[in-house]
UniProtKB/TrEMBL annotation:
Keywords carried by this UniProt record: Oxidoreductase
GO molecular function terms noted in the UniProt entry: oxidoreductase activity, acting on the aldehyde or oxo group of donors, NAD or NADP as acceptor
Protein name: Aldehyde dehydrogenase family protein
UniProt xrefs under SUPFAM superfamilies: ALDH-like
Similarity field: Belongs to the aldehyde dehydrogenase family.
Residues the record marks as active site: 202
Top-level taxon of the source organism: Bacteria
Pfam family of the protein (one): Aldedh
Sequence ranges assigned to domain Aldehyde dehydrogenase in this UniProt record: 3-413
Length: 466
């Protein structure tokens, strides 16, 4: 069976296929750009920077690190309980089997591509369910993997319809990795619960940005404009809520208005536009102030919209939003900002701008899966970094060493060496006293004397073998 043979083959062979794939990506990147043409308004440079270059770097990360990460970890004598003398142990990482990957529409190559490659490197077979209209990049990736030497049947692209997930789960999978909305995550999790199938879920975000006193307002404005422009602002960690000290709010409004002026409108699906329209108008009715003209509901493209004087209780600040919109929330200080940010159920990513030492300290207080300091979005493309959210933003991680290990399950193997197995004998008089002596010697807080420890071990052995 191809899957069993793949799981049993050595990691070096699996990674040789990843290496050949990376070289093919470099040689024929233009084909991937054409396969990504379904992303509206995205040029070649953005496809290269947003998906293709990061995918190649993710391949290189696996080539360098996967063998060591997946190798059995042998435990030496250090830290081994004294009463387990003669026992050798190791921790193994084994593949799950069939991993179903449910891909998103905003990054239809990078996100499912990295997840699929990590699953394959760990020895799994992979099923990919692309988002509607997004099969082309996955089909291209599958063709190139097969040309690179991947055995047939180990990478399958399913139909784009949501029913494909239900069918795959019913047929039997061993793990699911999903990137999508919180509502989709809840629905799929219910399907998995009956069969107790484990999952990793990267779900919605409504990311917060914290502007500290001393931050360079011009840099903040440029970064926020980038977040509104990049990929049409259809990024789960794009900035949506900006908490800014009251004394700096006006300056940020001015700088941001200038920075976003040249950003072209982005295509936003009509259902999203209608939902957003209701949230925006409710926020304006509650006191938010639009910097510019509110968009028309019927317009298929949306220019960036900034709402000043937003307040934490507004529904707009608690919902997932895949559109170029940003809310500015004036605060007295960062304590108030943290309290305000916590009112959103999402905890995917966050950014902090300001003096590095202060920003780094605030990063440690944030409830978020990933935090960037004095930047946003781009640093998370580092293939060494795991990525995942908290609360309504999901669980588990993808990418990085931790993401690779999530594609495996743990097996421990312990080997008893020697013929002495005193614990197999029935209890005898005096055993309780010996155990109490061992407990107090090892854990009583008076330090361990090697000689006393040796005598105790000999006494235990003698007690069992006399």
């Amino acid at each position: 069976m191809a899957r069993s043979a793949w799981a049993a083959c050595n990691t070096a062979r699996r990674l040789s296929i990843v290496r050949r794939l990376r070289q093919r990506i470099a040689a024929d990147a233009e084909e991937l750009v054409r396969a990504l043409a379904t992303r509206p308004g995205r040029g070649m440079a953005e496809s290269l920077s947003a998906e293709i270059l990061p995918l190649a770097e993710a391949c290189r990360f696996l080539e360098r690190e996967a063998a060591a990460l997946l190798a059995p970890r042998r435990l030496g004598r250090r830290g081994r309980p004294v009463w387990l003398f003669g026992v050798a142990a190791e921790v193994r990482r084994e593949p799950f089997g069939n991993v179903l990957i449910v891909g998103p529409s905003n990054y239809p190559l990078l996100l499912p591509g990295v997840q699929a490659l990590q699953a394959l490197a760990a020895g799994n077979a992979v099923l990919v369910k692309p988002a509607p209209g997004c099969s082309a990049p996955m089909e291209r990736l599958g063709d190139w993997l097969e040309e690179a030497g991947l055995p047939a049947g180990l990478f399958q692209v399913l139909h784009e319809s949501p029913g494909a997930v239900t069918d795959a789960v019913a047929a039997g999978i061993d793990k699911l990795v999903l990137t999508g909305s919180a509502d989709t995550g809840r629905a799929v999790a219910r399907q998995l619960a009956a069969a107790l199938v484990p999952s990793t879920m990267e779900l919605s975000g409504n990311d917060a940005v914290f502007v500290l006193p001393g931050a360079d307002i011009g840099t903040v404005a440029r970064a926020l404009a980038f977040g509104l422009r990049f990929n049409g602002s259809a990024t789960c960690i794009a900035p949506r809520r900006v908490f800014v000290p009251q004394a700096q709010a006006a300056a940020l409004e001015d700088a941001l208005t200038r920075s976003v002026a040249a950003i072209p409108p982005a295509a936003v699906p009509l259902p999203v536009r209608r939902r957003l329209d209701g949230l925006v108008r409710a926020a304006v009715a509650e006191g938010a102030r639009p910097l510019g003209v509110l968009p028309e509901d019927a317009d298929p493209a949306m220019a960036p919209l900034i709402l000043a004087d937003a307040r934490p209780g507004m529904a707009l600040l608690r919902e997932e939003l895949f559109a170029p919109i940003l809310s500015l929330v004036p605060v007295r200080d960062m304590d108030e900002a943290l309290d305000a940010a916590a009112q959103s159920p999402y905890a995917l990513g966050a950014s902090v701008f300001g003096p590095e030492e202060d920003a780094y300290a605030l990063a440690g207080r944030l409830d978020a899966g990933t935090v960037t300091v004095n930047d946003l979005i781009v640093p998370t493309a580092d293939p060494r970094l795991p990525f995942g959210g908290r609360r309504s933003s999901g669980w588990g991680v993808t990418r990085g060493a931790e993401g690779l290990l999530e594609m495996t399950r743990v097996k421990t193997v312990s080997v008893r060496r020697g013929q002495r197995l005193p614990h197999l004998d029935p209890p005898r008089d005096g055993d309780a006293a010996l155990m109490l002596a061992a407990l107090r010697l090892l854990h009583g807080g008076h330090g361990i004397r090697i000689g006393a420890l040796r005598r105790l071990a000999q006494a235990l052995l003698g007690r069992r073998n006399d």
